[in-house]
Design goal:
Blueprint: H1 19-22, H2 32-49, H3 52-74, H4 81-94, E1 99-106, E2 111-117, H5 134-148, E3 152-158, E4 166-173
Antiparallel strand pairs: 1-2, 2-4, 3-4
The protein binds zinc ion.
Zinc ion (ZN) binds near residues 159 and 167.
Length: about 180
C-alpha cells in the first residue's frame, strides 16, 4: 500500500479499512488535537526538509485528492447543485469537519464564496497574519472539480488565524483545462 514506488496517485477509499471492526472499543472518532498533531508535525517537517512553498503545494494537492475521493465516495446527490450543497453540509457537519455555508454562488461564471465555521484545521489557534488552511483549499477545489467535471481552484481569504471567526474561501473554475 505505501511501500511500493509510484508515479501516480493510488489512494482508494478501501485503504481506510474497516474502522468499526478494527476499533471495537475506541470506535471511529478521536480528539481533534491528535488530528492537528499529525497534520502540523507533518507540515513542519515538509517545511524544514523543503520550503514553505513546497509544503503548501503538497498539502494543497493532498487536500485536492481527498476532496475528489470524498465526492466520489460519499456524495450521492450530483444532479442538482442545491441538493449537492445540502448533502455536503450534512456530511461535513456529521464528520465534524466544519459548518459549511455558501455565501455567494455564480454558477454561470462558476465562482463561489464559501465559509467554514468551527473548521477542523484552525479554529481556536493563536492569531497570526496567516491563512493556514491549505489542505482545506485543496479539499474544496477537489470537491468542486469532481462535482462539476471542471478544474476548480480554491483560495482561503479569511481564516480563524487571520482574525476572523470563520474561514472564507473563494473558489473558481480555472480557464486552462
Ligand atoms: Zn482557516
Amino acid at each position: 500500500m505505501f511501500k511500493e514506488e509510484r508515479e501516480e496517485l493510488k489512494f482508494d477509499w478501501s485503504m481506510l479499512g474497516n474502522i468499526g471492526e478494527g476499533r471495537p472499543n475506541l470506535g471511529n472518532t478521536m480528539d481533534v488535537s491528535v488530528y492537528r498533531l499529525m497534520q502540523f508535525t507533518l507540515r513542519d517537517v515538509l517545511i524544514k526538509e523543503f520550503d514553505t512553498e513546497t509544503a503548501d503545494k503538497i498539502f494543497y494537492e493532498a487536500g485536492k485528492h481527498a476532496g475528489e475521493e470524498f465526492c466520489k465516495e460519499l456524495i450521492t446527490k450530483k444532479d442538482d447543485f442545491n441538493e449537492f450543497v445540502v448533502e455536503l453540509q450534512e456530511l461535513l457537519k456529521n464528520l465534524k469537519i466544519g459548518i459549511l455555508r455558501i455565501e455567494e454562488a455564480d454558477l454561470g461564471k462558476m465562482i463561489l464564496t464559501l465559509t467554514v465555521a468551527e473548521d477542523l484545521d484552525c479554529s481556536g489557534l493563536p492569531a497570526s497574519d496567516e491563512t493556514i488552511c491549505t489542505y482545506d483549499e485543496g479539499f474544496l477545489s477537489g470537491l468542486l472539480s469532481e462535482y462539476t467535471g471542471h478544474n476548480f481552484s480554491a483560495k482561503e481569504i479569511d481564516c480563524w488565524c487571520s482574525g476572523d471567526r470563520v474561514c472564507r474561501f473563494e473558489a473558481k473554475r480555472l480557464n486552462h483545462e
